[in-house]
């Protein structure tokens, strides 16, 4: 089986860990939904944010989401695992270091722009994602998409092949 997995807020508890760094950079606190909107639409500002985050190596300190590593390790033995992240390529080395430190195995690692992740996993049977817009695109190209429940993706989900999940244990049961 070809499995695609997003990294941030699916494997890595990125929002919880980096929200204070983001709020400090912005000079005020934002809701999770506002953070996603700012990251999506304020590209120049986000390049400055990413440059600062890269210099301070903040992406190397993020904790794992509970249950992610054992499931991925189990799947790696039997399936083709592609990690597909929207992180900019400047985080490539930090991302690989983080994955190695947490013993997250994978066959391929891709950096992809929003809504293009489907192009990185050919014949995708399963994809795990936290971005609703991305999940909607993936649903047209993958047999099953697990939408990892987050505050910014709580809108109703229409396609039947998008399944909202709240934990890796739930993913394992429904896969």
Automatic annotation (TrEMBL):
GO molecular function, one term: 5'-nucleotidase activity
GO biological process: one example: deoxyribonucleotide catabolic process
This protein's UniProt keywords: Hydrolase
Record's keyword annotation contains Hydrolase: yes
Active site residues per record: 6 (nucleophile), 8 (proton donor)
SUPFAM superfamilies xrefs: HAD-like
EC number(s) recorded for this UniProt protein: 3.1.3.-
InterPro entries according to UniProt: 5'(3')-deoxyribonucleotidase, 5_3-deoxyribonucleotidase-like, HAD-like_sf, HAD_sf, Nucleotidase_putative
The keyword Hydrolase appears for this protein: yes
EC main group: hydrolase
Family that this chain belongs to: Belongs to the 5'(3')-deoxyribonucleotidase family.
Protein name: Nucleotidase
